[in-house]
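re: that chain from earlier
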Amino acid sequence: MNRKKLEVLNIEDKALFVADSHVNKNRDELYTFLELIEKDRVKVNQIFFMGDIFDLLIGRIKFTINYNKKYIDLINKISLKKKIFYFEGNHDFNLAYIFPNIKIFSFEQQPAVFKFQGKKVLLSHGDVLTSLTYKIYTKIIRSNTALFLLNLTDGLINNYISKKIINTQKEKIICSKIKNFNNLIYKRIDKLNIKNIDYIVEGHFHQNKKIKYLDIIYINLPSFACNKSFFTVQSQNGFKEAEVQDIKS
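^ sequence. v structure.
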């Protein structure tokens, strides 16, 4: 991983991680959880949204913004009193102007290095190690020109494109185990070719699994859509012992 300069930020005690909630009209449980956070019934000062929080939310695409407006409003309200980091996923991107008080990490800014208790933690949504074709597609679809044309076209045809994508996502099976997942992660870590990293934390795969490889502990976060659960870190136990907690707890 070649980077000229890495901005290292800190993960605070009891930081909360939410990944892959894939919000749509049929998957609305995250809103209740966010209300608990906003009312301080879930004690947390720092929140990490690890991508694909929405089934479809794209800055500049008006229908997707209106479709998710109640979530956007609530998250922005929370961001006035909580520190929030948002790692854009493949379903939610170009978010900086939607969430003005949130630190946004675009596809190009991932993975990012954070620190927790002196340990280095590499964070990303999880789709960063992909084919050249995917990277080119990602670059094009996130460009201002493409988003302008997509929004214009979508509006002219009664938002058919956005509605079609959302309806397709509603039917998609997203909660399944990946065969040979450990081997997939071994290859990903080898491809990253990173040094002096203690942990890698990602979403995207929905596996809720912890793997140790070489001197690195890899954590694939639980999908909120599948588990209705989130991930926290505790200073007394260290990042290694962070546990998944059920939304009902």
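Residues 10-246 form a domain with the Purple Acid Phosphatase; chain A, domain 2 fold (CATH 3.60.21.10).
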